[in-house]
Amino acid sequence: MIGRYGPDHLNTALIVLAIVFGLIGRLTGLTSFFAFSYLPLFLALFRMLSRNIPARRAENDRFLRYYWPVRTKIANRVKTLSIRVKQRKTHKFFRCPSCKNLLRIPRGKGRVQVTCPKCGERFIKKT
Ligand SMILES: [Zn+2]
């Protein structure tokens, strides 16, 4: 692999795409889909063995410009969801009726007045 580009995020994505296409092709019996799965696989292989490292880096940078914000958004959603699941017995989660900001209040406190820290909206909520 000396002088070759090697693996990167775009290649990983291409291989995952090839696997997904291959599985869809196998499960649905669509042979054209199965054959189409080889295209991203060969592209990933070509990129990994390429000696034109600056060009491959530029491709990866362009890919990451779109991929990274999406990945960060998904990671944040998963993190928020895991916090909600962990605290579901001690806290009540809901959205602000005005700005849709996610808020939480401790359970078992009766009716409380909530002030949204983001927009300042005040409303009554049952815990
Ligand atoms: Zn609000």
Number of helices: 4
Structural class per helix/strand content? Answer: alpha+beta
Q: Tell me the span between the first and last alpha carbons.
A: 61 Å
Bound molecules: zinc ion
Oligomer: single chain
List the domain count as a whole number.
Answer: 2
Structure description:
The protein has 127 residues and is α+β, with helices and mostly antiparallel strands. It has 2 domains: 1-87, no CATH class; 88-127, no CATH class. Helices cover 57% and strands 16% of the residues. It has helices at 9-28, 31-36, 38-49, 53-87; strands at 91-95, 102-106, 111-115, 122-126. The strands form 2 sheets. It has a two-stranded antiparallel ribbon with strand order 1-2. Strand 3 and strand 4 form a beta hairpin. Helix 1 (9-28) packs antiparallel against helix 3 (38-49). It is elongated and about 65 Å long. Zinc ion (ZN) binds at residues 96, 98-99, 101, 116, 118-119, 121. Residues 96, 98-99, 101, 116, 118-119, 121 line the site of zinc ion.
Summarize, please.
By secondary structure, this protein is α+β, with helices and mostly antiparallel strands. The chain contains four helices and four strands. It starts with 8 loop residues before the first helix and ends with a strand.
Which features would summarize this protein structure in a list?
two-stranded antiparallel sheet, binds zinc ion, 4 strands, alpha+beta, two-stranded antiparallel ribbon, 127 residues, 2 domains
Please describe the topology of this protein:
Blueprint: H1 9-28, H2 31-36, H3 38-49, H4 53-87, E1 91-95, E2 102-106, E3 111-115, E4 122-126
Antiparallel strand pairs: 1-2, 3-4
The structure holds zinc ion.
